[in-house]
Amino acid sequence: MPEQNEPLKHGAEEPVHDVAVLGGGSFGSALAKVLGENGHRVHFWMRDEVQAEEIRTTGINSRYMPDVVIEGDILPTTDLGSAVNKAEIVFVAIPSKAFRAVIKENSGNFPQGQIVVSLTKGIEANGFKLMSEILQEEIPQCRIGVLSGPNLANEIANRELTATVIAAKDPQVRNKVQDLLGCEYFRVYANVDIYGVELAGALKNIYAIVSGLASALNMGENAKAMLITRGLAEMSRFAVSLGANPMTFMGLAGVGDLIATCTSSKSRNFRVGHAVGQGKKLDDAVAELGQVAEGIYTLELVKERAEELGIYMPLVRGLFEILYGDAPISAVINKLMMSVQNSDVEFILPRTVAE
Ligand SMILES: NC(=O)C1=CN([C@@H]2O[C@H](COP(=O)(O)OP(=O)(O)OC[C@H]3O[C@@H](n4cnc5c(N)ncnc54)[C@H](O)[C@@H]3O)[C@@H](O)[C@H]2O)C=CC1
Ligand SMILES: O=C(CO)COP(=O)(O)O
Questions:
Q1: Beta carbons within 8 Å of 193's beta carbon, 6+ residues apart
Q2: For ligand 1, what atom is nearest to the CA of residue 102?
Q3: Residue 11 included in any domain
Q4: How confident is the model over 268-285, as pLDDT tens digits?
Q5: Which residues sit with their C-beta closer than 6 Å to ligand 2?
Q6: 42: pLDDT strictly greater than 70
Q7: C-alpha span between 243 and 156 (Å, rounded)
Q8: Is 97 considered catalytic here?
């Protein structure tokens, strides 16, 4: 670990590490690029041989990141076993719907003690499992971490200044990820609250959809701030009731990611909300996006879970009614505005009024 104020070093003077990135979409490409630029050998796994060949020969992933050249020692492959076998550390950027299947099918390829870090911001439908829980179940021989934060893939790929969070119980995992990824445009902060960091990343997608809707309706800055802040209250209420640490939501993975995605049309979840706010059907909005918007699945799961546990989540309920119940947006807004007025920060002043 570098001493306080000692500059990060990358390039010729640093040892080259073999790393694997699983998932050839936007975020896998962005992370592969950071690792490649930091001088590491990147075994970059994707399903599609045509895509692998394109990256091998041109450095470009034209479907997901057409304007960016992924430079460095990048070795695209469709052989997951060999990618994982050669790597000291594996980063997984596969959408939540396919996450378990890919890991399970290849579980025997992950050696004892290998570090495996999830980059995925979603929840598994069956049993409300987070990706770190899936890793724990499918490859218990590995050491697990979660990377989450305000990390819009395109900005990272364009070397725009970015910070993220590595959450892991094992300090060696945290240090390793900081060492491998940190550079002049990418900073990695550490946390031990895996569940909180991971839940924050998944939950904020819901509020990015809400914010996209608000933007399409030309809501003012006060309204946008209200939505983001009440979103934060709601997601931290939910996560804390499931065992997360509320303070995690003060950090990059909580409020940081919420700000990035709720204020930017670069967020795919925001874009889905915006399209629905303009009158598009959800299915059409998702089809036009052509990339994953995890929030639409997370919304259904969180609504169901919140109801089971009796957790008050009016924005989740309202968005669900709009996306899946065809409720008029104006009626939902009116119901939210006219509901019982309550505590601002419930960790200071508990909510007292029954809904
Ligand atoms: N794009 C971003 O800015 C960020 C994305 N994430 C998270 O990373 C995860 C992946 O997202 P993106 O790369 O952005 O999605 P994407 O939509 O850009 O790409 C998805 C990739 O997953 C692959 N894939 C889908 N099903 C698969 C399967 N069964 N087996 C193997 N590969 C499969 C697709 O072929 C594609 O390469 C998501 O959970 C997302 O929330 C996290 C931080 C930032
Ligand atoms: O999680 C993200 C940025 O931190 C990406 O958000 P979207 O999936 O909405 O694009």
A1: 167, 244, 245, 247, 248
A2: 30
A3: no
A4: 999 999 999 999 999 999
A5: 121, 150-152, 205, 208, 257, 260-261, 267-269
A6: yes
A7: 31
A8: no
Residues 181 and 217 in one domain: no
Q: Whose CA is nearest to atom 24 of ligand 1?
A: 94
Taking residues 54-80, what's their average pLDDT?
97
Mean pLDDT across the stretch 173-187?
98
- Examine the domain organization and report whether 89 and 222 are in the same domain: no
Give pLDDT tens digits for 218-265.
Answer: 999 999 999 999 999 999 999 999 999 999 999 999 999 999 999 999
Same domain, 260 and 185: no
Per-position DSSP letters for 174-232, written without gaps between them:
HHHHHHHH-BTTEEEEEES-HHHHHHHHHHHHHHHHHHHHHHHTT--HHHHHHHHHHHH
The two beta strands, 89-92 and 115-118, are parallel
Same domain, 261 and 308: yes
CATH number (domain holding residue 185): 3.40.50.720
Its domain, for residue 106, covers: 18-192
- Residue identified by tokens 């670990």 is 1
259 C-alpha to ligand 2 centroid (Å): 11
Residues 271 and 289 in one domain: yes
Compute the distance from residue 115 Cα to the ligand 2 centre, in Å.
24
Please identify, by atom number, the ligand 2 atom nearest to the C-alpha of residue 121.
Answer: 1
- Among residues 33, 176, 204, 303, the one annotated as catalytic is 204
Residues 175 and 239 in one domain: no
- Tell me if 10 is assigned to some domain: no
pTM for the full model? 0.96
Q: Do 31 and 120 sit in the same domain of this protein?
A: yes
Distance 275 CA to ligand 2 centre (A): 16
Instruction: Please give the pLDDT value at position 15.
Output: 83
What ipTM was assigned to the predicted interfaces of this complex?
A: 0.98
